[in-house]
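Form 7-S
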Amino acid sequence: MRRSTTRAAVAAEVGAARSAGRRIALVPTMGYLHEGHLSLVDRARALADYVVVSVFVNPLQFGPTEDLARYPRDLERDVALLDARGADLLFAPSVEEMYPGGDPAVQVVPVRLADRLCGAARPGHFTGVLTVVAKLFGIVRPDVAIFGQKDFQQAVLIRRMVRDLDMPVEIDVAPIVRDPDGMALSSRNVYLSADERSRALVLSRALFAAADAFGAGTSDASLLLRRVRDMVAAEPGVALEYAELVEPDSLEPVDSARPGDVLVIAARVGRARLIDNVILC
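Output:
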């Protein structure tokens, strides 16, 4: 695997691959990689001939009281994992390389879809996400970009940005990767103590219980959400931020659940803000 830290070097590397007729995939990450990220690399390899992975902790998507300074980082570990997984190019820029001159004067600001769920609790977050993703698309010019289902609202907004702004890139969303006990993998899981992690399992248990109830015939959204909220409320140390049942493209709440609708949840456990979701089937 080759490593680049500048936009110009990435453009040269990817340009050579494209000139050789190779299909380019991009996997954007903030590093501190786990099996969930690596599954995206596997997916990229299946969809393309040349896999670029970015590792960049993007300051634009962190609020003033959020965890930018303490967000977990270990670039050399990430390099070893990506090399073993067969990535072709790592792009690991500095903040100054990505944003020369400071915060960009022009940013991608979502008008809809970003004012609820995670966007309500993290104002400005999705402007930061869409801006850095748009920059990465401009730098790498991938044929396909792979994102994870765990960040469901993010994936919906990126797909909408690509559609609304006519960006020539295919968006692929890969399934959530979980530990055997059901916990969705996340870099922020490192913040959890053993006791907190045990308590945090209520999030996936509650989602699975509601999904099972839907599979057994319950379609009333209020009943499904009551099951989720009651289970979380019964677990000490877990502060529910939201639990919603939404339509997968508009993110609007639904009254009657249908296959394809998405149960989404966010909660705080200790220092960690955790999100998860399940797609009803």
